[in-house]
Amino acid sequence: MHSSKKIVVLGHFGVGKTSLIRRFVTDTFSDNYKVTIGVHITKKLVEIAVDREVSLILWDLEGTDEIESIRDSYLLGTHGLVFVFDVSRPSTFEHLGNDLKIVRNKVPETPLMVVGNKSDLVDKAELKTVLDENELSADFLTSAKTGEFVNELFLKLATLLVGDA
């Protein structure tokens, strides 16, 4: 059985959205930072069970510090969301609760994964302290650079979405 699911990846500037997608789709990483303008769409076929595949259509939205300014048209038909913040840059998660509230208001029934990226830049004990002090909860702490938990993130979301099919 095969289905397609639109996944929108969003968050502030420079949190590693494009790098997460690149790591997942091509298993590569580049230190060359290129700003995403508008949206970049990529696709990957994922096997989530024997004879059960899902085609993930990954929408990489341009980063913005004004989450409410995300075009509603980008979110139409979305099956799943990945909201990314940078664990090493407090400015990307200081208002995480409000950012998530805005996203949930735009697409209230859509499953959402919250991801703290760039975990390789912060000591694990320090990372736990940062999360606790800021009352942050992340579904995954990833590193696009090392690949840590990147595949697990997208596979969990794909499995969740196909389970809802």
TrEMBL record:
Keyword terms of this UniProt record: GTP-binding, Nucleotide-binding
Pfam families: Ras
CDD domains for the chain: Rab
Molecular functions (GO terms): GTP binding; GTPase activity
InterPro entries for the chain: P-loop_NTPase, Rab, Small_GTP-bd, Small_GTPase
PROSITE patterns given in the database record: RAB, RAS
Domain of life: Bacteria
Key word GTP-binding present: yes
SMART domains: RAB, RAS, RHO
The UniProt record lists the keyword Cytoplasm: no
Family annotation (NCBIfam families): small_GTP
Record protein name field: GTP-binding protein
